[in-house]
Specification:
This protein is α+β, with helices and mostly antiparallel strands and 149 residues long. It has one domain: Aminopeptidase. The protein is built from four helices and six strands. It is globular, with a radius of gyration of 15 Å. Residues 1-140 form the N-acetyltransferase domain.
């Protein structure tokens, strides 16, 4: 699936992804995956439904869904390069992804965000109801506490 709008391309084709650019952003600029190893990024991409945003064949954005394509999807690693922010690309990327055929009819869509609540609320995301029912294992700083591989 691929669409073009105002000189930007939004695609779910993994062959177009620039894994080095994605790794650079996640490991150096993101707050959630500092120092993530390239091998980990590659494994995550290989096992997720991924989306890229491109301008003149340059990767300028990325997002991925961890999903079973039947009941559940977790949205993560969403970013737009800083110089392209403020152009509505995150909103367009969300519109492109949320209507993807592999993500229809699921029982639960989830994500975690520090600062983009207003973006995701436009697409129906709300604060988790009954959070006391949810559990998890969280290993903070997993990539910063280990030498980068």
């Amino acid at each position: 699936m691929e669409i073009s709008e105002n000189g930007f391309v939004f695609s779910d084709k993994k062959a177009l992804l620039n894994r080095d650019a994605i790794h650079r952003y996640l490991s150096e600029e993101s707050y959630w995956a500092k120092n993530i190893p390239l091998e980990t990024v590659n494994r995550a991409i290989d096992n997720s439904l991924c989306f890229g945003v491109y301008k003149d064949l340059q990767q300028i954005g990325f997002a991925r869904w961890v999903t079973d394509a039947a009941t559940f999807a977790w949205l993560c690693d969403v970013y737009i390069e800083e110089e392209f922010r403020g152009l509505g690309l995150s909103k367009k990327l969300m519109s492109f992804m949320i209507f993807h055929p592999n993500l229809q009819g699921l029982r639960r869509y989830q994500l975690a965000t520090l600062d983009a609540h207003s973006l995701y609320e436009q697409f129906g995301f709300t604060v988790i109801q009954n959070p006391e029912r949810q559990m998890g294992i969280v290993i903070p700083n997993i990539y910063t506490d280990q030498p980068n591989q």
